[in-house]
């Protein structure tokens, strides 16, 4: 019997993975703030800049429970690395 | 019929059933095998282009084509006549107002409940009476499971990956009821929400499982216990509002109607009385306070409440209209409250069911 597959074939990534950062010092990091735990993300941004010398672009999502808008994703993609979290 | 899905040629039934487990294509239960013949019958009944897409299902973004949805509907146990109900439910879930991306991935236990209204419910044998949230009825089970399998296989919402629900609930397998419209003195849910009387529709609302409410007596007695059950401090609504669902059984509704209470009267009374003092809510801790602040900053919290006054009585939803009421279940003593996810989403969305040739 012929059975049809319920999923789509796995997709390869649209763009190649970026090189892993060797050090935080001087690196431009996009911190995608999910607007849920402001004290946590504020502390994280401070640690990255003051202790590790990174340059942090803090990008705040309008809602912590919905996907980031496209322009925010595009902006984050211009950084050398991005920190993204979810949880609620 | 031109279909684009990959196919497998298998002769052994047991082997085919086991393959779905091995590949991670099922939710933990065996499936009806989606043979080409069954899938084509499903699509033919709907009269839709197999490659028409309802959109990308979050979180992983698999396209919800009619063909892929038909495969998952067969797997869930649907007959072709169920498929238009599944399609309407998927359309409703994928409306941005429902925030399916969040509902599928939240640590909260909400699951999108499908509520079927209209003559189609009786015609296809959906249960709206005794045991309405339970087992025993193919239409409730198959339509509910078909939608869940689509979220599983196309949305990629699986518990070891993107579905971060801390506890979840059994509605992850199937969560579908019909509203009782014959033994019901009030307008049905879909008509309240703008559909023409006599039309067929589904409403989806992401909520917890049903919380039992021992609800019998005069309207004031029933409302007293319902209001108390709705504003428990453990539910998200009490902290970040959103929407909530009350299920009254036909005797409850009859009793209200006999004493001159409309559904809107009940809704307004519950909104005025399902409240907690701010000091009670604050005693739950700083995290709850932070969520409330976040909702206020996002403009989803009604600012007219004085959040500096501990005697302020906070309602469970922003407006009375955010309390949904359906009539279902047996003629007995129990009602149910199904709290929502809060202001984060999962809001009710209604879609009419498109039936071919009607």
- Tell me the β content of chain A: 15-25%
> Averaging pLDDT over every residue of chain B, what do you get?
95
Cα separation of the termini of chain B? 23 Å
The fraction of residues assigned to DSSP E strands of chain B is: 15-25%
Order of helices and strands of chain B: EHHEEHHHEHHEHEEHHEHHEHHEEEE
How many runs of DSSP E, i.e. beta strands of chain B? Answer: 13
Secondary-structure-derived class of chain B = alpha+beta
Give the overall average pLDDT of chain A: 88
- Count of discrete alpha- or pi-helical segments spanning 4 or more residues of chain A: 2
- How much helicity do the residues of chain A have? 25-40%
Question: What is the number of E strands of chain A?
Answer: 4
**Which assembly state applies to the chains in this document?**
heterodimer
Question: Could you explain how this protein is built, in words?
Answer:
The complex is a heterodimer of chains A (88) and B (358). Chain A is of the alpha/beta class and 88 residues long. Chain A has a domain at 28-84. In chain A, 25% of the residues lie in helices and 22% in strands. Chain A has 2 helices and 4 strands. Chain A has helices at residues 38-51, 70-77; strands at residues 2-4, 28-33, 55-60, 81-84. In chain A, strands 3-2-4 form a 3-stranded parallel β-sheet, sandwiched between helices. With 358 residues, chain B is an alpha+beta fold. Chain B folds into 2 domains: 1-208 and 343-358, no CATH class; 211-339, no CATH class. Helices cover 35% and strands 16% of the residues of chain B. Chain B is built from 14 helices and 13 strands. Chain B has helices at residues 13-22, 36-46, 66-76, 83-93, 100-105, 119-123, 138-153, 189-192, 219-230, 237-240, 250-258, 263-273, 278-282, 286-297, and strands at 7-9, 53-57, 62-65, 111-117, 176-178, 201-207, 211-214, 244-248, 275-277, 313-315, 323-327, 334-339, 349-352. In chain B, strands 5-4-6-13 form a 4-stranded mixed β-sheet. A 4-stranded mixed β-sheet of chain B has the order 7-12-8-11. In chain B, β2 and β3 (62-65) form a beta hairpin. In chain B, α4 (83-93) packs across α7 (138-153). Chain B is globular. Classes of the chains: A alpha/beta (88), B alpha+beta (358). Chains A and B meet through β1 of A and β1, α3, α5 and α14 of B. β1 of chain A pairs antiparallel with β1 (7-9) of chain B, so a sheet runs across the interface.
């Amino acid at each position: 019997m012929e059975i049809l597959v319920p999923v789509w074939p796995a997709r390869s990534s649209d763009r190649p993975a970026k090189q892993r950062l060797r050090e935080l010092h001087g690196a431009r990091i996009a911190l995608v703030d999910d607007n849920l735990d402001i004290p946590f993300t504020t502390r994280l941004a401070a640690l990255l800049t003051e202790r590790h010398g990174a340059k942090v672009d803090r990008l705040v999502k309008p809602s912590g429970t919905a996907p980031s808008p496209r322009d925010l994703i595009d902006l984050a993609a211009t950084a050398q690395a991005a920190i993204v979290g979810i949880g609620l | 019929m031109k279909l684009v899905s990959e196919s497998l040629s298998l002769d052994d039934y047991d082997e085919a059933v086991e393959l779905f487990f091995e590949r991670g294509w099922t939710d933990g239960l065996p499936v009806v095998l989606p043979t080409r013949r069954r899938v084509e019958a499903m699509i033919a009944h709907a009269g839709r282009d197999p490659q028409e897409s309802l959109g990308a299902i979050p979180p992983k973004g698999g396209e919800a084509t009619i063909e892929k949805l038909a495969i998952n509907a067969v797997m869930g146990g649907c007959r072709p006549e169920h498929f238009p109900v599944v399609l309407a439910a998927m359309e409703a879930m994928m409306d941005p107002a429902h925030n399916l991306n969040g509902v599928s991935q939240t640590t909260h236990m909400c699951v999108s409940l499908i509520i079927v209204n209209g003559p189609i419910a009786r015609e296809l044998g959906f249960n709206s009476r005794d045991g309405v949230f339970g087992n025993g009825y193919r239409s409730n089970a198959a339509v509910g499971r078909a939608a869940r399998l689509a979220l599983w296989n196309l949305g990629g919402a699986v518990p070891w990956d993107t579905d971060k629900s801390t506890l979840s609930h059994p509605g992850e397998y199937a969560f579908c009821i019909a509203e009782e419209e014959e033994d019901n003195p009030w307008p049905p849910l879909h008509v309240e929400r703008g559909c023409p009387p006599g039309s067929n529709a589904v409403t989806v609302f992401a909520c917890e499982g049903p919380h039992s409410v021992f609800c019998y007596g005069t309207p004031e007695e029933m409302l007293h216990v319902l209001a108390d059950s709705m504003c428990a401090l453990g539910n998200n609504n009490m902290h970040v509002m959103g929407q909530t669902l009350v299920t009254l059984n036909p005797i409850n509704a009859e009793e209200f109607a006999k004493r001159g209470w409309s559904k809107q009267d009940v809704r307004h009374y519950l909104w005025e009385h399902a409240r907690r003092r701010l000091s009670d809510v604050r005693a739950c801790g700083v995290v709850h306070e932070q969520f409330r602040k976040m909702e206020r900053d996002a403009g989803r919290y009604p600012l007219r409440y004085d959040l500096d006054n501990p005697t302020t009585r906070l309602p469970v939803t922003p407006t009375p209209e955010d309390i949904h009421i359906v009539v279902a279940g047996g003629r007995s003593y129990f009602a149910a409250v199904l709290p929502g996810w809060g202001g984060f989403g999962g809001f009710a969305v209604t879609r009419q069911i498109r039936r071919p040739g009607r």
